[in-house]
Design a protein that fits this description.
Elements lengths: L12 E4 L12 E5 L8 E4 L29 H6 L8 H34 L17 H12 L7 H19 L13 E2 L13 E4 L6 E12 L2 E3 L10 H8 L3 H12 L4 E4 L5 E4 L3 H12 L2 E7 L2 E6 L2 E11 L7 E8 L5 E7 L1 H4 L10 H12 L3 E10 L1 H16 L4 H12 L4 E12 L3 H10 L3 E5 L4 H10 L9 E6 L4 H17 L6 E7 H10 L1 H10 L2 E5 L3 H12 L5 E5 L5 H6 L2 E5 L6 H5 L2 E3 L4 H39 L12 H11 L2 H4 L9 H6 L5 H4 L6 H30 L2 H23 L5 H22 L9 H6 L2 H28 L3 H11 L43 H5 L21 H7 L1
Parallel strand pairs: 5-17, 5-21, 17-20, 18-19, 19-20, 21-22, 22-23
Antiparallel strand pairs: 1-2, 2-3, 4-23, 6-7, 6-16, 8-9, 10-11, 11-12, 12-13, 13-14, 14-15, 15-16
Helix pairs in contact: 2-3, 4-20, 6-7, 9-13, 10-11, 12-20, 14-16, 20-25, 20-26, 25-26, 25-29, 26-27, 26-29
Length: 934
């Protein structure tokens, strides 16, 4: 409809639209303009006519429209929602430890509070110098417990959250600044959007990945084709250079011309002509761009699109086509069509392209499609993406009758998508299949090496793709996703009905559960149809299969199914990472514990919705092994050290209460306690964010050491118990030596408190130094400079009469006994810890210790052997509402679903499973034959 710009402000009409919703893929509305514009005819509006909030205009300078939804009622505003907070495994453990310390604190306060009141009533009132009144206020019993509550209040380090947030922001900056994660081809660098989950990268157990644009380059290149049973490009591997095809074009072969016409016209591509005359194409997908480019190279050039008129240049002649209707692609129909009128002869033609299962079953009754089916299988075996092209001539009256139904379906406000699909089905039948196209999407550089390295690190991979089964399997083989026969074994899980899927699931489950005689790399493959039935009716059994299998290939899956599979693994308490590059991967990325988006050719939807964005898949190896592992190690140390330093000062206060009448009196003055957490102990541990237990090269060379992070070996109740015992031991050392060295000699508790505080600072400096693996100038400045700063601060405070520390530090530093006490504290406190560390390092070294020793001496490491993660129970129970099993289900594998502890213990994470069963075994050499025979 063309309207003069001067009349735009005079337009009046009504837009009929539904209530605001969050579905950004659909907008089912109608527009009625008042005369003299359209005479009240209904004009359907779809999402194609809609500009969403925050979108950019391209290929046009301006647009005229009307605001339908505003504010929070826009589609993006309603779909934005409240983001679900992501809690890392380390955060969850810290919360549990904090709860345990809180309970311990309450017990200490209650016990000491009662003991203090008992001592006051039995002993303190007998001492004349205490001056307790005979009758106190009603709250007298609460005074001593509240004093102990104040003394023990720092037992839970409130500063730990601030410290963790600070260092996590540094982790994010390390990722942003990593020069080795810059894609020099596009100039795209890595970026951390979420700064709170870096340590989870080091604990990833499952990676769920898209295929196109994620594992592959998404650079579609037209390689081969089959037209009317003739294969082109098989010899040279490039149909565009096939002499036989060029000869057919030159001779004016009707079949070839029709084939090229569908390639050039049946799309939503917009040609853009530059000032120099060169033509470039703006396409929604790389497949369409590849087909249009290939048609242009074969002399069928899409030149211009003006309104609904297309201009095609073929062998020097100009052809015009009028686009009457576009039957858009949907994931359910798996095809798109265009109804065009040939302006040369007035004929109306339906042009269709789509997946083989969406085209070949709708071929005309007399046409033989077996050759095209074989072509699809052959191309899929080569890892090529296939599309079938077809067309059909329409009669004028047939089109007019169908057009009325199509317009009616387009204008309905209820179930519009279903109505349109039904109407499209009435036209897309009795098709004349023209041929098959094969497009190559090459693997990205470094993908096989990256997957192999991460699999050595104990990470399991699932491929979730919308491609057909054979193509996905070939890509999986080429990128080390699965191993070829005889080392690898692929189990097929298929079926169109519940009974078929049930039998297939039983067979696969029994294979993977019973037979463990042969060491094999076992994987299963499932398509979207069977997956829908599995998730709906056999969720519990499929969950068990997911736990047993380290590798899975899910084909023809929808975006919602991708998200459901992520949720399935998360329900088993696995740490999941989802990676993709397109808008159809957003739900999967947001559902996973960690979402990684690739800034690819399909736009930035995935990258903007993800926690981390990278330029290429190969950078995932460095993101996990280097940044993730370092983040976990550093966070584990910082969190436990924060508890240690807080418990240390609290234990000293508790010990002092035993010689102060359990009265809740503080050994330290308030200034020292305030500065303890803020200044004296915070800087050294924050600089631990630069610590590296192993070099980056060693980590990348021996990825299996990631098992220690996945199993939580550095932060768990056992390691925390070690730090708890260390704080208790150090508190005893500091208190006993300080009291014996100064209390009975001088009798001044202020000096004893400063000696004890100095001993804590000295011990902590050596503790941080002992736990540091790689020293830099920053570590030395932070550790020893902080120790010097402690004395500078206290010297300054000691000059202030009102500080409560007047001249104390000057008197202490002038006494040789003070320095002797510091050396005694350090020697007694660090001696046993050094001895224990030496014993473990020498006689019971871990794999990391072996690598550290090799780095120091510079010697080679022949092998580290296998590092098995500690098995942990996995509860495969799911909500009852999500399980609806058919009545005729066979109960052969009911014992496998037992909830007994023995069953759950047998499903440990990372346990190798080796299975073999002849009747369910699927060899790659016979795979295509089996599919064809079935």
């Amino acid at each position: 409809m063309g309207i003069d710009s001067e009349l735009l402000h005079k337009i009046k009409g009504v837009v009929e639209c539904p209530n605001p919703d969050k579905d950004i893929r659909r907008f089912d509305a109608n527009m009625r303009l008042f005369p003299p514009f359209i005479d009240n005819d209904v004009c359907p509006l779809t999402i194609k006519n809609t500009i969403l909030q925050s979108c950019y205009l391209r290929n046009t300078e301006w647009a005229c429209g009307v605001a339908i939804y505003t504010g929070n009622e826009t589609k993006l505003g309603m779909s934005r929602g409240i983001p679900e907070p992501k809690l890392t495994a380390v955060d969850a453990m810290i919360d549990k430890l904090t709860g345990a310390i809180f309970v311990f604190q309450l017990v200490v306060v209650i016990v000491l509070g009662i003991a203090g009141n008992v001592w006051k009533d039995t002993e303190a009132r007998k001492q004349w110098y205490v001056l307790y009144p005979k009758e106190g206020p009603w709250y007298e019993l609460l005074v001593i417990p509240l004093r102990f509550e104040l003394l023990c209040s720092i037992m839970i380090p409130i500063s730990i959250k601030v410290s963790l947030d600070f260092i996590k922001s540094l982790y994010a900056k390390f990722i942003d600044w990593d020069a080795e994660m810059i894609d020099h081809e596009t100039g795209c660098s890595s970026h951390a959007t979420n700064t709170a989950i870096s340590e989870d990268l080091g604990q990833v157990e499952y990676i769920l990945t898209d295929k196109t644009g994620t594992l592959t380059e998404n650079k579609m290149v037209f390689r081969r084709c089959c037209i009317n049973g003739v294969f082109y490009g098989n010899e040279s591997g490039n149909a565009l250079k096939d002499v036989q095809l060029h000869n057919a074009i030159a001779s004016g072969s009707t079949d070839v011309i029709r084939f090229l016409t569908v390639m050039a016209i049946c799309n939503t591509v917009v040609p853009v002509q530059s000032k120099t005359g060169t033509i470039s194409y703006k396409a929604q997908s790389q497949d369409e761009d590849a087909l249009v480019q290939a048609a242009a190279n074969l002399h069928m050039t899409f030149v211009q699109k003006s309104g609904n008129t297309l201009e095609i240049r073929y062998n020097g002649s100009v052809l015009h086509y009028e686009v009457l209707e576009i039957l858009e692609f949907t994931s359910d129909r798996k095809r798109m069509s265009a109804v065009v009128r040939d302006c040369q002869n007035g004929n109306i033609v339906l042009l269709t392209k789509g997946a083989d299962e969406a085209i070949l079953p709708y071929a005309s009754a007399g046409q033989q499609t077996r050759t095209y089916g074989e072509a699809v299988e052959q191309y899929a075996q080569l890892g090529l993406r296939t599309l079938c092209l077809a067309w059909r001539e329409l009669k004028e009256d047939e089109y007019q009758a169908w057009s009325l139904m199509f317009r009616e379906a387009n204008s309905t406000l209820v179930d519009r998508e279903w109505r349109i699909a039904e109407v499209c089905q009435r036209l897309e039948h009795d098709l004349e299949v023209l041929g098959v196209t094969a497009i190559e999407d090459r693997l990205q550089d470094g993908v096989p090496e990256t997957i192999e390295t991460l699999r050595k690190a104990g990470i399991n991979f699932w491929m979730l793709t919308g491609d057909k089964q054979n193509t996905a399997i070939q890509i999986a083989l080429s990128c080390n996703f699965i191993s070829p026969e005889p080392k690898g074994q692929l189990l097929l899980l298929d079926g169109k009905t519940e009974d078929e899927v049930s039998r297939s699931l039983e067979r696969v489950l029994l294979t993977m559960r019973i037979t463990t005689s042969e060491p094999k790399d076992v994987a299963f493959v499932v398509d979207g149809w069977a997956l829908e039935i599995l998730l709906k009716h056999y969720r519990r059994s499929f969950t068990e299969l997911a736990i047993l299998s380290r590798t899975a290939i899910c084909c023809r899956v929808t975006p919602s199914q991708k998200a459901q599979l992520v949720q399935l693994l998360k329900s088993c308490e696995y740490r999941t990472l989802a990676i993709g590059d397109g808008g159809n991967d957003v739900r999967m990325i947001q559902q996973a514990d960690i979402g990684v988006g690739i800034s690819g050719r399909e736009g930035l939807q995935a990258a903007r919705a993800a926690d981390y964005s990278i330029g290429k898949f190969r950078f995932l190896k460095r993101l996990i092994l280097v940044h993730g592992r370092y983040s976990y190690n550093r966070t584990a140390f910082l969190s436990q050290y924060s508890f240690y330093k807080s418990l240390l000062i609290c234990f000293i206060q508790i010990f002092f209460s035993f010689i102060s009448g359990v009265s809740g009196t503080s050994l330290f003055n308030s200034v020292s306690l305030m500065a303890y957490n803020v200044f004296y102990t915070s800087i050294p541990v924050l600089v631990s964010t630069l610590d590296k237990d192993l070099s980056e090269g060693t980590v990348m060379q021996h990825p299996q050491i990631l098992f220690y992070c996945q199993a939580g070996r550095l932060l768990n109740p056992s390691t925390f118990a070690g730090w708890f015992g260390r704080s208790l031991f150090h508190a005893i050392v500091v208190f006993v030596i300080s009291i014996n060295a100064f209390a009975y000699e001088k009798g001044e508790m202020e000096e004893v408190g400063m000696v004890a505080l100095s001993g804590c600072i000295w011990l902590q400096a050596f503790v941080v130094a002992l736990e540091t693996n790689s020293f830099t100038i920053f570590q030395h400045l932070a550790i020893w400079g902080n120790l010097i700063g402690f004395y500078i601060i206290n010297w300054i405070v000691s000059t202030i009469p009102a500080s409560g520390m007047y001249t104390i530090m000057f008197r202490l530093c002038g006494q040789p006994s003070y320095w002797i006490t510091m050396f005694l504290i350090v020697g007694a406190g660090m001696g046993p810890i050094l001895a224990l560390k030496y014993f473990r390092y020498t006689y019971r070294p871990s794999k990391i210790n072996i690598l550290q020793q090799a780095e120091r001496v510079g010697g080679p490491i022949l092998t580290l052997g296998n590092i098995e993660p500690q098995p942990r129970p996995v509860d495969i129970d799911v909500l009852p509402l999500s399980i609806t099993q058919p009545k005729n289900r066979n109960s052969v594998y009911e014992p496998l679903l037992s909830d007994s502890p023995n069953t759950r213990r047998s499903l440990g994470a990372g346990t190798p499973f080796d299975f073999f069963q002849p009747q369910s075994r699927l060899s790659f050499s016979s795979y295509s034959r089996n599919c064809k025979d079935n």
